Predict the structure of MFS transporter.
Amino acid sequence: MSDTATASTVGRAGAPISRRIPTRYLVLALIFIITALNYADRSSLSITGTSLQADLGFSSVQLGYIFSAFSWAYVLGQLPGGILLDRFGARRIYALSLALWTLVTAAISLVGLITTPVLVSVAIIFALRLLLGVFESPAFPANARVATAWFPTAERGRATAVFNSAQYFATALFAPLMGWITHQFGWRWVFVLLGVLGLVLAVVWLRWMDSPRQHPRVTPEELETISSGGGLVDLDAPTTGGQRARLDRRTIAKIFTTRPLWGVYLSQYAINALTYFFITWFPVYLLEGRGLSLLEVGFVAALPALCGFAGGLVGGFASDALLRRGHSLTFARKLPSVVGMVLATSIALCSITDSSALIVAIMTLAFFGKGIGSLGWAITTDLAPPQAASFVGSTMNAFGNVAGIVTPIVIGYTVQATGSFDVALWFVAAHGALALVGLAVMGTIKRIRFDD
């Protein structure tokens, strides 16, 4: 009997419980919502940045460094975050991470309430953004860990596409909202709202989430569907003392000498360069480079975001469909990735037109392609050895988010030196081609097992 067709079954305690929606889909919905808030938090300065800059007196270069601060700490926090996830599981570490990054986001609203020199305000926000990076570092590896445990291989492409597409949904939902709040009430209230939402989600996650085998809502049929399809249902199962085995040096050394993983690292870096342009300088480009108003920016920025969201779903669902039709895992993951990255390079065309409408159309196409090609997390869950699932995910995320350090700073200096965004757009577009190189380096996609 299919787990999706079961309208009523018997729960763990023997009581009849309605089962219309498989629990794994509710788990996916929850991590989608949390990830959308995650991206709203990290991209909040892209909407509020111009108002904050005017209020506190920051220069473009100072704003560029503030944009990059998140990624410095986010990158450094990846490996410790992955190790904590492998030892303690996603439930506790994700809840703690969510609560802490929410408090840091809310604290930004307090900067400048008391008159302070510009450099002091810069230093405080830079430090808060560093802490935000540290506390958010376990989030995406935790998402990948949850997908590995809760979804069979043939559904994992769409599962990772859904939570990865939350970044675009976050922009589509929160960019207009944050623009309106900034316009009506001031930039501080954006951070207050994000703080309240984050604390609510942290409580929901901690009270409801569990491993597939231990979750009271999971039926035997659904558990069998997940486990027989390649889901690692015991990945986060409770262990004595609440900890799991430590990673040994031999395993870590093998991870850093495995060619397919280096292909993932390179392609993820390239994809994230596109992401960080979008969540940092893109609204500023629309404001300063195209002359749009703040309210217009909030709504215009939502258009490419919506198409990026749609592209992410198309890429994930297409990949799983190819897999179900008998194509190899390598072909099913790489074909959408190649098509998407080719489309993403079209962002360079924005530098040769003065039409704002055409620029928005090109950006929309580029981010639709970027969404299609963003299968790095699916590929990581396909490759990672079970004993180091989160460590591999964190390593990939660390390399990928080096782009968050490089991209905002390079664009900041480029814009200040040239007075335009043309060179910056070519710089961003080149990363689409770099992602294709990473896919070539990757070779065959199959789960790496170091204990064979």
Q: What stands out?
A: The first strand starts at residue 8 and ends at 10. Residues 19-234+246-442 form a domain with the Growth Hormone; Chain: A; fold (CATH 1.20.1250.20).
